[in-house]
Amino acid sequence: GLSTQPIWRKLWDDVMKTRPPNSENITCWRKKFLETFFSNVLHGVLDVASDWRLNDQHFSPLLHSSPHVSQLTLCNMLQGAVELTAERNQKVLENLAVSLQILKFQHLLSSDQSIRRSLVLLLHRLIHHGSVSQVSMYSWPVPDTVLLVLILSMSAGFWRSGNALTYHSSPCGLCREEDKAQSQASAQPQAERGQCNKREWSDGVDQKGSPRVPREADGELNRCRADVCLNPVFSRPRSPLQNQACEESSSKVPCDHTSVQGGSSPHCISDQLSCHPVLRKTRRRVKSVVGRKRRCLRRSRGPYADPEDLYDFVFTVAREDNLGLLNKNSTTEGENAENWTGSSPESPCTGHTGCKKREGPVGIFSLKAAHRFRSVSTLELFSIPFTGETCRTLSNLLSSWVSLENLVLSYNGLGANIFCILSGLRALSRHPNCHLRVVRVSDVFSHMPCMELVRCILSAFPQLHTLSVSFDLKNQLEGNRPEGNPGCSEAEIPESCLEQLEIRFPREPLHTAFLLPVLKASKSLQQLSLDSATLPCSQELGFLLEALKECTPNLKKLSFHDMNLAEHQKEVLLLLQDPILQEITFSFCRLFESSTTEFLSEIINTVKRNPSLKSLKLPGNRLGNHRLVALADIFSKDSSSSLCQLDVSSNCIKPDGLLEFTKKLEGHIQQRGGQIQFTHLRLFQNWLDQDAETAQEALRRLKAVCSVVNDSWDSSQAFADYISVM
C-alpha cells in the first residue's frame, strides 16, 4: 500500500539529471521515468556506461523499459528506427507492438534506401501488426516526398501486394501465419462443398493425383485473391470480363467479403477460381492487361520492395486502374471521388487551381496492387508544407480510410489544395463504415471563407463530434481571392451530431446569417468558440445571442477570443445571466477598455445571482488590481454563485493587489463558515515578479483556499518584447 512515486522521482534526478517539463502534471513518475529512459537510450542522449547501476552486460535498457512505453518520438535521420529493427532488438520491437499507442515523427531529414527499409519494417510491425493508433508528424520544413508518402500510406494500412515486407531476408512471420490460417480456413469449406467434379479436375491432375498448377500460375492466383474479393466498400467498377467472371463465380460459390475496419487485409473464399478453368483463364487475361508491368517489377525485385517506388506507385497504379473507367464513362462506384464543383467523378482533385491536372486522372488509391492492413485512427500533421502531389496522395488515402477517427491538419500551406483534401473527405463520408468524428484544420492563409469551409465539411460529415477551422490571415492576393465553392455555401446541412465547434476568423466579419444554418443543424452543440472575428454592426452580437438561444438548447461552453466587445456591455451581461451556460470565456475582448465602475458592479451582481455558471475566464482584459479585488465579492455571504474556476491571466495584476484579493476572499469564506465551491485560480503572465516576497505570501495563503496555477513570468522582458514589435 506504499507509493513508490518518491523513489522514481529521485531516480529521475539521479539518472536524467534534468528538470522534467510540466512536472506538476505528471501523475505517474514510474511511467514517466521509464518512457523517457527508453527514448534517451534509443537516441544516445543517455550514456548507460556512465551509471554503475546500468552498466551490466546482462542488462538491456531498451528491453527492460520497452513494455512501459506508450508513445515514442523518432527524429532527424530516423536512427531510432534502424536501432529498433536490428536483429538484437527483435524482442524490444515485440514489446513495443503491444505497448506503443502513439508514434511521433519530428524534424525529419532525407534518408537513404536502407533507412527507409528499416522504417518500413518498423511501421509494418507497430501499425499493421501492433497497437499504434496515432501517428503524428511535426516540423518538417522541406519534407522528403518519398518518405512522407511512405509514412502516410502505411499509416492508412496500405502496402503493395505480395510478400514485399521482410524481416532479415525472410517474409514477415506474422503475415505468413495469417496467410496460412486464411488458406486453411478457405480450404476446409471448399472441400466440404465439393464444388468441382472429377471430370473438371481430370485435365489438371498428374499421375500421382496432385493438381498440376505451375508455380507462376500459383503466384498469379495469390495476387488475384486480394483483387477479386475486395471489400465492396473499396471496390471500383469492373470491366465486362471481370463482371462476367464474378457473376459466374457468385452464382456457383458464395464469396465471403470481409469488411476491414482497421483490421487485417480482406480475404474471401476465392480458391474456386483455381478449380474452374474458364474463370481462371478469364481472370488471368484481365490481370495481364491491367497489371502486367507491375507483376514483372515485383518478380524482378526479390523479397525487398524498393520504397523509392512507392511515390510513383500511389499515382501510377491509380492512373492505370482508372484509364478503363474513363473509356466506359461509368460512375457506379467512381462517384465516391466526385469533385465538389461537379468535375469528373473519377478524379477527386481536378478542376481547381490548386490541383494541377496530370497526364492521367489520379483516382482513389488503388487497392488492386496493395494489401490492406490495420490502420491508425488518429493522424496529425503539424507544420509540414504540402504540394499538389502530396495533397492528391493524402486525398486518395483519405477516401477509403474508414478507421480514421481524428484528423488534424495544421499549418500545411494547403491554399487552393484544400479542395483536393475536401474531395477525399467527401469520398470517405460515403462509406457506411466511416468512423471520422474529429476534424481540425488550421493554416496561415485562408483560401475560402471560414463559414463556407465549415458548411462544406459539416454537410458531408453530419456525424462529426468536433470541428475546428482556424486561419490567421486572409489570402495574400486579397484582390484575387476566390469566392470558394458556390456549391458549399448553398449545400443543405443535415441534422448533425456536432458537439464542439471552433472557428478562428482571419479578421473576417461575423455574419450570424451565415452561421445560422450551422446552428440550426447542430441541436447537440455543447461548446462554441469564436476567435478573431469582427462585428459588422452593433446589433450583430445581439443577433448571435438570439440564434444561440433559439437553436442550441444544450450549449454549455461559450468562448470569445480577440473580439472587441467594449461597446457590447448589454450582451455581455445577458450571457452572464444565461441559465444554461456553465462556462463563459471573454479572452482579450477589451471588456473594460471604455467601461465605468457600474459595469463591473453589474457583472459581479449578475454572476452572484447565477447558480449555473461554473467557470468564468477573463484573461487579457486589463482588470488591474482594483477590479481583481472587487471580483472577490462574487463569493460574499449573500451570493448564490457556484463559480468553481476563475481565470485572470494577463491582466496587469501586481503582488499587492493579489494579496488584497486574498485577504478579502478569506474574509468571505470565514463569513460563510468555510462553505465555498471555488477551487481553481489561474494567474498566468501577471506582474507578480515586481515584489517576490509579497507575491509568495499571497500565493501561500491562496493555496490554502484553492488550487493556484501560475508561472515565473518576466514582466520586464515581456514589456521589452512588446515595445520591440510596435
Automatic annotation (TrEMBL):
Annotated region (Disordered), positions in chain: 183-217, 327-353
Basic and acidic residues: compositionally biased ranges: 195-206
Metal-binding found in the keyword field: no
Biased composition (Polar residues): 327-347
Keyword entries, A-Z: Leucine-rich repeat, Phosphoprotein, Repeat, Ubl conjugation pathway
Domain of life: Eukaryota
GO cellular component: cytoplasm; nucleus
Keyword Electron transport: no
Protein name: Leucine-rich repeat-containing protein 41
Organism name: Pedionomus torquatus
